[in-house]
Amino acid sequence: MTIFTRIAKGEIPSYKVAESDEFYAFLDINPLAEGHTLVIPKNVEDDYIFNLDEKTYEGLWAFARKVAVALKAAVPCKRVGVAVLGMEVPHTHIHLVPLQTEGDLDFRKKRPTVSDERKAELAAAILAEYEKL
Q1: N or C: which end of the chain has fewer CB within 10 A?
Q2: Which tens digit of pLDDT belongs to each residue from 17-70?
Q3: Are 111 and 102 within 8 A, CB to CB?
């Protein structure tokens, strides 16, 4: 069982920003920017997004789109950037990152420190926007 599956099952705490029966979105613990969110399938642990069956693949992107809309409404940014790397954790995941510039999506850059209190505020704000959709 991957760490992301354990997070989605509630075995490991996370800052949840959205959830459906099949998908889960939560704040990245080492964000590129405040609000950096990870979107995962709950019931599929394959580490390569293009191995997903068509229904899961399309559902994941539809869920991620809705989360991105909520993220942009909750966190001031010019765009929400998207990255799918799949190298860090062997579980398909989509990164949604609030952007002011293209450079904000550079995974090599120094990461900001975001307090637990701020993460809780961000997660609550994104979830509130998600629930409006």
Answers
A1: N
A2: 999 999 999 999 999 999 999 999 999 999 999 999 999 999 999 999 999 999
A3: no
- The answer to whether the Cα torsion of 119, 75, 31, 9 is positive or negative is positive
Rounded to 5°, angle at Cα 13 from 7 and 18: 65
Residue 38: phi and psi, rounded to 5, are -110, 140
Q: How many helices (H) and strands (E) does the chain have?
A: 3, 5
Both structure tokens of 22: 């099949």
The answer to whether the beta carbons of residues 133 and 66 sit under 8 Å apart is yes
Q: Which residues have a Cβ under 8 Å from the Cβ of 55 and sit 6 or more positions away?
A: none
- Alpha carbons 39 and 19: distance in angstroms, whole number: 9
The number of C-alpha atoms within 13 Å of 40 and in the hemisphere containing its C-beta is 27
DSSP 3-state of 127: helix
Find the length of the chain: 133
Structure tokens at 14: 């996370």
